[in-house]
Each structure stands twice: as C-alpha cells, then as structure tokens.
Amino acid sequence: MRRLEARHRRGAADFAAAMGALQAAHAAAPFSPQGDVGDLEDGAVYLESIDADHRRHYARKGRAPAPAAA
C-alpha cells in the first residue's frame, strides 16, 4: 500500500495532455519522447528513443536499490 500512497496525483488536464502526446507520437520514427523522468523511481526503465528503423532504445533511471538480504 505504501507504493500506491507514494504516487503523485495528476488531474484530468494532465491525463488529456498525456493522451494527446501519445496520439501524436503513435507509430512515429525517429522519435524521442519529450518529458521529465524526474518523477520516476530510481531503477525504473523508460523509453529513451525510437530510431528510423523502429528500434526502441531504453534507459534506466539512477540505480536500482540492492535487494534486501533474506
């Protein structure tokens, strides 16, 4: 439940803007998303770019935390 409570709330206008950007970028190549990765947790994987041959390139934000010892 902590992860859910830690998420950032967004309004309907933010959702509509995100959907508009998604529609505009659909099947576009080459393409580089325009957005801030600052809200992503460390270790999250996100799309960095799509090249002219539609190959996706991903990046990882920060470093993933070490797994807890058992």
UniProtKB/TrEMBL annotation:
GO terms for biological process: acetyl-CoA metabolic process; farnesyl diphosphate biosynthetic process, mevalonate pathway. One of its GO terms (molecular function) is hydroxymethylglutaryl-CoA synthase activity. Transmembrane segments: none annotated. It holds the Pfam family HMG_CoA_synt_C. Residues 2-61 form the Hydroxymethylglutaryl-coenzyme A synthase C-terminal domain. InterPro entries: HMG_CoA_synt_C_dom, Thiolase-like. This is Hydroxymethylglutaryl-coenzyme A synthase C-terminal domain-containing protein. It comes from Monoraphidium neglectum.
